[in-house]
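Work Package 3 committed the consortium to producing structural models of liganded targets before the mid-term review. Because experimental data for this complex are still outstanding, the team generated a predictive model from sequence and the ligand definition alone, so that downstream docking and mutagenesis planning could proceed in parallel. The input record is reproduced below exactly as it was submitted to the modelling pipeline, together with the SMILES string for zinc ion.
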Amino acid sequence: MDSGKPQMLLVMTGSWGRGGGRSPFPRLFVTNEHYALLYRLTRRGVPVRMQLRVENKFTRGPVTVYNTVGEIRGSEKPEEIVICGAHLDSWDLATGTVDNGTGSMVVLEAARLIKALGLKPKRTIRFVLFSGEEQGLHGSREYVNQHKDEMSKVSAVFVHDTGTGKIEGIGLHGNKQVQPILEKELEILKELGVTRYNDRLMGGTDHASFYASGVPGFWFMQDPADYFLSHHTQSDTFDKAFKDDLIQGATVMAICAYNVAQLPQMLPRRSTTTTPTSP
Ligand SMILES: [Zn+2]
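The resulting structure, written out as tokens with the ligand in place, is given here.
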């Protein structure tokens, strides 16, 4: 398969049981440059012989992974919850900075900010670093599954998972009914450059796991920076993290979580259900 990335970057993705997991053939990515050469040769009918050096190894599944959870307990309605999330798992080619070390650090820093300011949120703010996201949102799906009884008490979920770029908007993921409330309660975010709302369903990251249970789950619309270049490649390294954008991201996440935790009511649920689509 074509890695689809420039400058000889490789890519990895996939999971058991999805996208070839049940195929009798392993799927291998080659660089775009090599793929393009093979394509040109075969189009001209030139016979091609490939020699592959594969260093992968097979691991028997299933593999146990763990979510990491912490919380600041609510002072008035501790049983009602606002969740800040990101996923801690990544791919092996690099150290996983933009996918999703940056989001994980934004969640930790949001927790630190709220704590350091001595704020006592009315509702519980829970910080969750999901795992198994890359192979199919396993950590967040299982979280929803194991906390079924609690879901009616989760007011909102905010997820940071598009790399280092600063937050420019809030993706409502089909929860149009909350827009007037968030616009009013999060007015201050305009000063940080967060000006857009989008109702579109955005699958492929952990907020989507909460959709079926009716919990309003939001994704942050971020400046893409080099996200789509680096993610899942050997180029996803620490130098791709932009400090100022991440400080903005953590500040935005902390404000979202705290202000929603302080509202007189939980955020309203949407009335109808539709099926999320992948981006
Ligand atoms: Zn991710």
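Reviewers should note the following from the model. Strands lie at 68-72, 77-87, 123-130, 154-159, 167-171, 196-198, 217-222. These observations will guide the Year 2 experiments.
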